[in-house]
Amino acid sequence: MDQPQKKRILTGDRPTGSLHLGHYVGSVKNRVALQDQYECYIIIADLHMLTTRPLKEDIMKMRDNALQLVLDHLACGIDPNKVTFYLQSATQAVYEMNLFFEMLISLNRLTGLPSLKEMARNAHMDPESIPFGLIGYPVLQTADILMPRAHLVPVGKDNEAHIELARDIARRFNQYYGDVFPLPEVLLSDVPTLVGTDNKGKMSKSAGNAIYLCDDAKTVENKIRGMYTDPARIRSDIPGNVEGNPVFTYHDIFNTNRDEVEDLKARYREGKVGDVEVKGKLNTALNGFLEPIRQRRKLFEEDKGFVEQIIYEGTQKMIEISNQTVKEMRSAMGFGGAWNKISRIARERKNAK
Q1: Among candidate residues 109, 116, 94, 111, the one with its CA nearest the CA of residue 164
Q2: pLDDT tens, 104-131?
Q3: 217-231 burial string, b = 16+ CB within 10 Å, else e?
Q4: Rounded CA gap, 9 and 37, in Å?
């Protein structure tokens, strides 16, 4: 009896550098859990970097960043035999798909997406300097999603509008030219936003408030020692706030000793424990969490060329998939007919002479 085919998932990241704890909590942990249940494709979305980082020096950095991105995933437990990593810019079909899809969506629909305005603000762009590519960002995302004909896209609630736009484009293509694409569904994840060590918004590389998955034990210890706590608590005998305190947020997520966490919280509220002890135990818990990741990462790093091979083979697989998708698109749209007829008549005429 044939096994039912697994549904396909498309997810991924822009290669901006090494992943941190916020990435792990927000996406990587979920990807590790999904890899057994679904056919998973993880895109190294280097073309999407061009919307805010178009300079050659930025593009050159992406080469190493792509390797770090895959290394971090492997170290966290992603199995390359179950998951396909591929380099977006090397799949030529995505450029063609992007062009076709641009004709199926209005400018008003794109400019109405609040996420684009947020991206522009984060990149410090004024309305006059926003590039066309940033406005079209969700269309290229649609090409990414529909290229492997993904059934599911894991996103947080704030990105649900992008998947709805991909559904609209797929629906319109199917209405115009025949059923080629499944309508991708949102796989809503309860993605928490991990606060940075400075308690000034979410953890991010640009804010300098991140603990990276590849940080060594001493670096982690130093970052924890400098973490923001309760600013009103100037002595350890003063009762402190646990809620909104990043040190305890991290304890809740990464410290598996629940009795220890609850004891620390109780004593902190009563003014019976100092920040040094609370941070010290967080350091033990967090380095205990990170050490197996570091060890696996080291093994993969020592296997020279292994990560490159994973990206190469995954990209070759996606090139085959994407070429077939575009072939079916062009056939459905009727684009192949004109050139085939012109070519046939020209060859016949040439051969007749």
Answers
A1: 109
A2: 999 999 988 877 777 777 667 777 778 8
A3: eeebbebbeebbbbe
A4: 10
